[in-house]
Amino acid sequence: MVQTFGCQMNEHDSERLAGMLEADGYEPISDQTQADVIVLNTCCIRENADNKLYGALGNMKQLKDDNPDLQIMVGGCLAQKDRELIQQRAGHVDVVFGTHNVHRATALMADARRDGPITEIWTAADTDDPFPSALPARRQTDYAAWLTIQIGCDNSCAFCIVPAVRGAEISRPPEDIVSEARRLAAAGVTEITLLGQNVNSYGRDLAVAVRRSGGTGIRVRPAFADLLLAVGGVEGIRRVRFTSPHPKDMNTEVYQVMAGTPSVMPHLHFPLQSGSDNVLKAMHRGYTAARYLAKLSEARETIPDLAVTTDIIVGFPGETGEDFERTLEVAAHAEFDSAFTFVYSPRPGTEAADLTDRFCDPAEVKDRYSRLRTVIERSALQRHRAREGRVEEVVVEGPSKTDALRLTGRTGQNKLVHFPKPEGPLRPGSYATVRILEGRTQYLLGELVEVTARASHRTRLVVL
Ligand code: 5AD
Ligand code: SF4
Questions:
Q1: Nearest to 428 by CA among 138, 182, 189
Q2: What are the backbone angles phi and psi of residue 343, rounded to the nearest 5°?
Q3: CA 460–ligand 2 middle distance (angstroms)
Q4: How far apart are CA 124 and CA 102, in angstroms?
Q5: Ligand 1 mean position to 310 CA, how many Å?
Q6: Burial environment of residue 405 by CB neighbours within 10 A (0 to 12, 13 to 18, 19 or more)
Q7: Whose CA is nearest to atom 17 of ligand 1?
Q8: Where are the domains of the chain?
Q9: Ligand 2: distance of its center to the CA of 245 in Å?
Q10: In degrees rounded to 5, what are phi and psi of residue 132?
Q11: Cα–Cα distance between 193 and 132 in angstroms, integer?
């Protein structure tokens, strides 16, 4: 079994790990006590990820005592960061591997069976191909796929551990991205999400490489907007999404491509982090609240019917009550469709983690957090109610998790719609129009209007 703890990049790696194990003859199961191999794919972006991992590993000690043949493997960002520490804290772990050597996981498993516990962490420089698309992937769905366009991050947000763990930005060559999109389309995928730490700075490093090699291409830097256009134009791809862009690098060109390419979905995840200029400065975000809002207005003016979501951190070191009021104001003004809200968590090795004398009072942070949720949920509900009566196309995800008599679909704006199951099967990956009957804070309720494209039955294992 493969357990995932983190972001979309992490989930995508888990799909690769599951694919590799399946290619080696393993079958996925959900009962830990029956597993021969358990892979924990970790994340280190917030502190509770560490606690969760070490908690999960603690619980697995007994499993390993009961079944000495069980192999426990730990990969991902936290493994990349903690390295040998993992086996020091949990001696029953057989293999520790990093984000740059996911493709080595099954080989390491065999080595560990023979030679005992192994920690192997690579950097980007150790690998010829930082984007190993030749790995099999066991995707969670047949119709939707992640496509990594860039790894690493060249920014230095004061709260964030990612640059230290994942290293400098590396962009994947555009032709490789487009050919992977074509292969995915040929395998039946209709929705692609482009993944990167900072997708809209895509190509910066490639431009440097072109200049160094003396190339004189007319366009020195392949821009993210070009890539969106190219992937959006791949036959069979009905929906393109991306996550996450950085507001400071966002430009009009991207908005224009979003507006002018029907397959690029009208949803922008636009991480605000804070609404206070003082805090934004201390975070090194590279924009002010006014600049953020100006970019957002331009996006909304250019892209019809745009949904906007965000990330906000509460309690960054030194955040005052005044600073937090600014965050509430900006969030209210921005009218987000939804938001991931986080309590600041110090990550050792980051700039902000050293500001211990400026840490906020936890009780105060808790109070701010719930006030922020109220503001976010107010705009979410308003925006969802405003959709009542519309007819929207959804991709069918499957039965609703809470009501077996309903199906769940996802709209272009990335919203969930629950609607009564029709007579006869409607497979996941089918497209249908639904009428929105009621907007709730987290989702919409609707009724089926018409099936627009039926998904055919396919094998779930796709080898790219
Ligand atoms: N504490 C709290 N939230 C964090 N994030 C990143 N680092 C931290 C941290 N140390 C949040 C940011 C980012 C999202 C992926 O996680 O909001 O956009
Ligand atoms: Fe972290 Fe900032 Fe890079 Fe995002 S842009 S990964 S928050 S350093």
A1: 189
A2: -85, 135
A3: 33
A4: 12
A5: 11
A6: exposed
A7: 311
A8: 2-126, 139-265, 268-386, 391-453
A9: 10
A10: -75, 75
A11: 17
Per-residue b or e along 194-232, where b marks 16 or more CB atoms closer than 10 Å to that residue's CB: bbbbbbbbbbbbbbeebeeeeeeeeeebbbbbbbbbbbb
Q: What's the gap in Å between 163 CA and the centre of ligand 2?
A: 7
Tokens 């694919």 — which residue? 19
268-386 sits in which CATH class? alpha beta
Topology alike, domains 139-265 and 268-386 = yes
Contacts of 14 (CB under 8 A, 6+ apart): 2, 3, 4, 39, 41
* Measured distance CA(335)–CA(307) in Å, rounded: 10
Give which of 52, 279, 249, 287 is closest to 159, Cα–Cα.
Answer: 279
Q: Which ligand is nearest to the CA of 309?
A: 1
At the top level of CATH, which class does the domain 391-453 belong to?
A: mainly beta
Q: What is the pLDDT of residue 50?
A: 78
The pLDDT value recorded for residue 462 is 37
Phi, psi for 458 (deg, rounded to 5): -135, 160
pLDDT of residue 248: 96
**pLDDT mean by block of 10 residues, the chain; 464 residues:** 73 82 84 87 76 86 89 87 87 89 88 89 78 65 92 95 91 94 95 94 78 54 89 97 95 96 98 98 98 98 98 98 98 98 94 97 98 98 98 96 94 98 94 98 98 74 36
Cα 117 → chain centroid: 31
DSSP 126: G
- Whole-number Å distance between alpha carbons of 259 and 55: 46
Q: What pLDDT does residue 220 have?
A: 53
> Does the CB atom of residue 342 touch ligand 1 within 6 A?
yes
Residue 245 phi, psi (nearest 5): -85, 165
Q: Is 162 in the pocket of ligand 1 (CB under 6 A)?
A: no
Q: Which is nearest to 229 in space by CA: 190, 294, 181? A: 181
**The predicted structure's pLDDT at residue 461:** 38
- Name, in order, each residue with C-beta under 8 angstroms of 30's C-beta and a sequence gap of 6 or more: 1
CATH topology of domain 2-126: Rossmann fold (3.40.50)
What distance in Å separates the CA atoms of residue 38 and residue 42, rounded to the nearest whole number?
12
The minimum-distance atom of ligand 2 relative to the CA of 246 is 5
DSSP strand pairing (150-151 vs 170-171): antiparallel
For 353, phi and psi rounded to 5 degrees? -65, -20
Paired tokens of 463: 């080898």
For 343, the token pair is 């309590």
pTM confidence score = 0.88
Q: In 3D, which of 443, 442, 41 has the Cα closest to residue 434?
A: 443
DSSP 8-class letter at 273: B
Supply the CATH classification number for the domain 139-265.
3.30.750.210
